[in-house]
DNA sequence: ATCGATGCAAAGCGTTTGCAGGGGT
DNA sequence: ACCCCTGCAAACGCTTTGCATCGAT
């Protein structure tokens, strides 16, 4: 389940290819995110990188995450329950998630990603949508439910 | 694709069964939501019910939607892109969504819902998760992409 | 008479933005 | 020298909350 993690060179290249600079903050935010097993919130990433970069600000973490999302190194998972923060995923390979409706915590599922799942659901769907002006770029599948108390929140 | 819509009696019963009163505001919010073909934001519902209930407040719409979600008459679809409002769905039968990553608009997909999709993906998954302390209550499948400009936003 | 629901205003929270200063190329 | 990025603080948008009043039982 550990996703393919980009090393600094690969990530730097990806950032530069998008006209963005591979700053220490961006690399550190990515490293930290990739090292955390849960999918953390921006705040959690902020607290986790602070020891390495004591002067980093929360706003910079947000901006760094935005840059990483822009180059496709990170996925942003919007909050489901209201008033909850978004979660971030240093995605390597694509995968599915389980989402706890109480805490908002997100876990990876130990199931292989199926690139043809939509096609399998309905072979005509993508074409159908395209002809109606919708461009499909991907899909997201989440299990919803609750996890026992006491664990990671 | 038109979902089974609850009439006032059924909705009133559902609310009362949960210890909630079937107020005019709640019924109107539900009716309005069910009558809208897109999945609107709370603000959009608010503006749409105003003609019928000129004195209703946005806070009451939020509270009404919360009550409707609590009794299972409405689904709340969290914002995907940041800084966007949540959308609400007067769900009848379960279905899948297409989500526009630019505008946040959500459309129903003309595909039948598959209750056994997860089981089909991996028959052992649900049991596996259960044994690890995760209780699965459902799943959500969304196509992601972009819709041409000019339409409903 | 009770008890929940409403409507208003204000607070709350996560996130973004404006801007002066700093650092890499 | 340039331009992007940072960090701070303030603003922002969406949602919730506190509270007095209202309305239905």
From TrEMBL, chains A, B:
The keyword DNA-binding applies. Keywords: DNA-binding, Repressor, Transcription, Transcription regulation, Zinc. Pfam families: FUR. SUPFAM superfamilies: Winged helix' DNA-binding domain. InterPro entries: FUR, Fur_C, WH-like_DNA-bd_sf, WH_DNA-bd_sf. The keyword Zinc applies. Belongs to the Fur family. This is Transcriptional repressor.
